[in-house]
Q: What sequence folds into this?
């Protein structure tokens, strides 16, 4: 790619805009051009990509966090080949930072841990360790460990040569300091929410950090607005919703004329969700969860998308009887989560999860008739209904990409059953978690995420129902649906290999003699 072609590509990205708002035709062209760029970036017998900073920034703005990270990783490999270690570590660190803003990929995390061990006595160590702390905080939810990691990095970063910060992706020390410190404050908020006995301790620490940040950076508008947004959350967490609401109104009024203000829509929606939760207004809380997630997706903000999803799961996990999975409010939140899943994975259709649950139940009933093995109906239905819940943590573009996934995008998909198991365990449905995690595994070891063999009947039943329903749906804009007879024939070819013969026989029996006229 010469400079002219790069210029055309950058201009195309700018004008295409947010991926979630593009038409199918535009998204197809966007995907093709982005794939071509990434394929070029993977080659190591090329010149450096001078426009990498612009491409990173625009891809993130459009919602392509995974693809921005891959471009940075690819460019870092070229620097490593040339022995340019500052640029190599800087680009790798930026890639990790961008990727973990949107999604957690265990393979990349293990690579990061390896680099941390190798760089322990180098100047790059505090920066890489800060990304480990972020992963513990945002993705692994090990808040105590994350806080200790953040404190360690804070002690180490003071001795770092200030000229290294631009190399690692920050304009200066201040740009690192305020972002890092606000991440630490967010951990303190999370610890306050989960550890009711120590709320005062964690909030006092958050108060000190926010006060310190305001004294240092309050004269910089782009930093001050973030500090003020965190103060709003501070008052909510403290149990002072009136003060939070007052500050929220003041902040909106102060900045509403700014050109950048519209990009903060998802943040304000999320803060309003927290506000109504603090008031105990469950109906308004659920309504604002829906609005918050819609705003986050439409603005391409994967960070706020995940934050809102995490909060919805927190309600089911930790809020007692009000949001128990089996309460009326809990059922509304669960339905909201399924609605969020459709908003992210819209090509399969809003009723995909329900259809998989219903078909799984029919297959299970037929399987019991054939084998005499009783499978609990509620287990079948709930595991089928929530089989794809882990896709909540997969970026929008990866779920809806109208072309073949590349290696890193595939890793995001590969681990969605693992994310699903973790969510099921967190919301009190651990007894179904195994079947959610195994719905893409196959008896011959060719499935994912782990290549397991000899699966229990329930995992196979959900897997078969998922294949059948997805292949026959008419909602996929880049794949024509197959007839039920075609899909059944393909599945029958897998019996005794990928699936137990009785499971496939039960699928066939669930429809009677005619699959052409069967209605799911």
A:
């Amino acid at each position: 790619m010469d400079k002219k072609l790069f210029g055309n590509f950058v201009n195309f990205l700018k004008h295409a805009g947010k991926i979630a708002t593009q038409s199918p035709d535009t998204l197809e062209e966007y995907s093709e051009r982005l794939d071509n760029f990434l394929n070029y970036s993977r080659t190591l017998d090329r010149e450096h990509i001078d426009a990498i900073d612009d491409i990173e920034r625009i891809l993130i703005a459009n919602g392509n966090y995974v693809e921005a990270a891959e471009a940075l990783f690819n460019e870092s490999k070229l620097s490593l080949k040339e022995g340019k270690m500052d640029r190599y570590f800087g680009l790798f660190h930026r890639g990790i930072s961008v990727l973990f803003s949107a999604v957690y990929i265990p393979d990349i995390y293990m690579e990061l841990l390896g680099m941390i061990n190798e760089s322990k006595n180098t100047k790059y160590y505090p920066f890489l360790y800060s990304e480990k702390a972020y992963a513990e905080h945002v993705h692994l939810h090990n808040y105590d460990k994350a806080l200790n990691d953040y404190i360690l990095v804070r002690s180490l970063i003071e001795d770092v040569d200030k000229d290294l910060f631009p190399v690692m992706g920050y304009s200066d020390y201040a740009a690192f300091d305020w972002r890092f410190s606000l991440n630490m404050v967010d951990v303190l908020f999370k610890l306050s929410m989960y550890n009711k006995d120590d709320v005062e301790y964690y909030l006092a620490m958050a108060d000190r950090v926010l006060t310190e940040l305001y004294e240092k950076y309050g004269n910089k508008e782009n930093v001050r607005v973030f500090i003020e947004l965190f103060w709003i959350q501070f008052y909510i967490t403290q149990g002072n919703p009136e003060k939070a609401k007052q500050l929220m109104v003041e902040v909106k009024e102060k900045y509403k004329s700014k050109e950048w203000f519209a990009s903060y829509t998802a943040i304000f929606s999320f803060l309003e969700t927290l506000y109504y939760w603090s008031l105990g207004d469950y109906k308004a809380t659920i309504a604002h969860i829906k609005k918050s997630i819609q705003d986050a997706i439409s603005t391409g903000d994967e960070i706020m998308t995940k934050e809102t999803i995490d909060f919805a799961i927190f309600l089911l996990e930790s809020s007692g009887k009000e949001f128990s999975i089996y309460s009326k409010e809990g059922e509304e939140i669960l339905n909201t989560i399924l609605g969020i899943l459709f908003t992210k994975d819209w090509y399969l259709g809003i009723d995909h999860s329900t259809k998989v649950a219903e078909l799984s139940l029919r297959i299970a009933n037929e399987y019991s008739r054939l084998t005499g093995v009783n499978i609990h109906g509620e287990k079948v239905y709930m595991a089928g209904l929530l089989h794809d819940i882990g896709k909540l943590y997969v970026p929008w573009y990866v779920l809806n990409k109208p072309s073949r996934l590349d290696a890193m995008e595939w890793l995001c998909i590969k681990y969605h059953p693992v994310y699903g198991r973790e969510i099921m365990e967190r919301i009190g449905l651990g007894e179904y978690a195994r079947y959610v995690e195994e719905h893409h595994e196959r008896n011959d070891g060719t499935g994912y995420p782990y290549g397991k063999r000899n699966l229990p009947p329930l995992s196979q039943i959900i897997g078969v129902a998922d294949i059948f329903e997805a292949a026959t749906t008419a909602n996929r804009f880049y794949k024509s649906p197959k007839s039920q007879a075609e899909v059944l024939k393909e599945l029958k070819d897998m019996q005794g290999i990928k699936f137990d013969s009785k499971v496939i026989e039960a699928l066939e029996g669930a429809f009677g003699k005619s699959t052409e006229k069967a209605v799911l």
About this structure: The chain has 26 helices and no strands. The mean pLDDT is 90.
